[in-house]
Amino acid sequence: MLFTIIIATHDRPLLLKRTLQSLIAQTCQDFRVVVVSDSASYLPPYPELAALDGRFVFMIRSGQPGPAVSRDMGMAVADGDYLIFLDDDDTFRPDHLAALKQRLQQDRPELLFCDFQVQQEDRTVSPPRPLHCQSLSIADVTFDSVYVRNRIPNSCVAYRRDVLAGLHNDTELIIYEDWDFLLAAMAGRSLVHVATDTVVIHKSEATAPENMRRGNSRNENVLPVMLLLYRRHAAPNMQTRLARQALLASAGVVLDLSHF
């Protein structure tokens, strides 16, 4: 298989069904799906899985909740040439994998990222009611800029499988575990952009219950985790160090460059 798509999920069966339906609709079917649920409180989406007959693994795990452990479990059984971590509330437009495949066949880049659309929606009704959609280009993201702040959604990155050898998701991070993982994968490698906005990032009201998990709504987590990641992943050059310093200075934080 060219792609293995890993979906970490937690108690969102209707959103997971929508995500799987977007995979079933792909014009490129050269993929396998690994779904890892950290909750056994609902039944798997059997009709969607049946449509992926022979090309899926569905695992229910115990232990610490959260996507990090689930993504690691997914990586352990992944066999595709490229791995994609698709969030359980995001979707792909039907031509997404075909667009990636066309680019990957040119020179097999180590890490590929793409543009995306943001779909605002009302999840107080079922199925969610679309509100408005905006296409966003992140073509200006560079290797160095990711060391300052991450503008690449997790679902927009395709990792060549050999790049991930020995890498693990940090289960202790409250937020930004996907940024930490991306930085670890980028070390000494190239980051390539493909101009397709075929990933759809679905968002609901910031104060909605699904957005309150794992501290995602608590701004006090942002600065300490950013500083931790800055220490863990040294800036590749002085220009990037200065950009980190300037970003934190805009928030009133003085950064000692000797440590970052």
Cα separation of the termini? 40 Å
Q: Number of domains in the coordinates?
A: 2
The CATH superfamily of the largest domain turns out to be Spore Coat Polysaccharide Biosynthesis Protein SpsA, Chain A
Write the CATH fold name of the largest domain. Spore Coat Polysaccharide Biosynthesis Protein SpsA, Chain A
What sort of overall outline do the alpha carbons produce when their principal axes are compared?
globular
> How would you sum up the major sheet?
9 strands, mixed
Q: Return the average pLDDT rounded to an integer.
A: 93
Helix/strand/pairing category: alpha/beta
Question: How would you name the oligomeric state of the polypeptide chains in this document?
Answer: single chain
Tell me the helix content. Answer: 25-40%
What's the gyration radius in Å? 18 Å
Task: Give the topology string: H per helix, E per strand.
Answer: EHEHEHEEHEEHEHEHH
Number of distinct helices:
8
> Proportion of β residues?
15-25%
Low-confidence stretches: 211-217
GO molecular function: transferase activity
Protein name: Glycosyltransferase
Keywords: Transferase
Pfam family, one: Glycos_transf_2
Write the layout of secondary structure elements.
Blueprint: E1 3-9, H1 13-24, E2 31-37, H2 46-51, E3 56-60, H3 67-77, E4 82-85, E5 91-92, H4 96-107, E6 111-122, E7 129-136, H5 143-146, E8 157-160, H6 177-186, E9 191-203, H7 222-232, H8 238-249
Can you characterise this structure?
Keywords: Transferase. This is Glycosyltransferase. This protein is of the alpha/beta class and 260 residues long. The protein folds into 2 domains: 3-217, Spore Coat Polysaccharide Biosynthesis Protein SpsA, Chain A (Alpha-Beta Complex), CATH 3.90.550.10; 218-260, no CATH class. Helix content is 30%, strand content 24%. It has helices at residues 13-24, 46-51, 67-77, 96-107, 143-146, 177-186, 222-232, 238-249; strands spanning 3-9, 31-37, 56-60, 82-85, 91-92, 111-122, 129-136, 157-160, 191-203. It is globular. It starts with a strand and ends in an 11-residue tail after the last helix. Mean pLDDT is 93; it is low at 211-217.
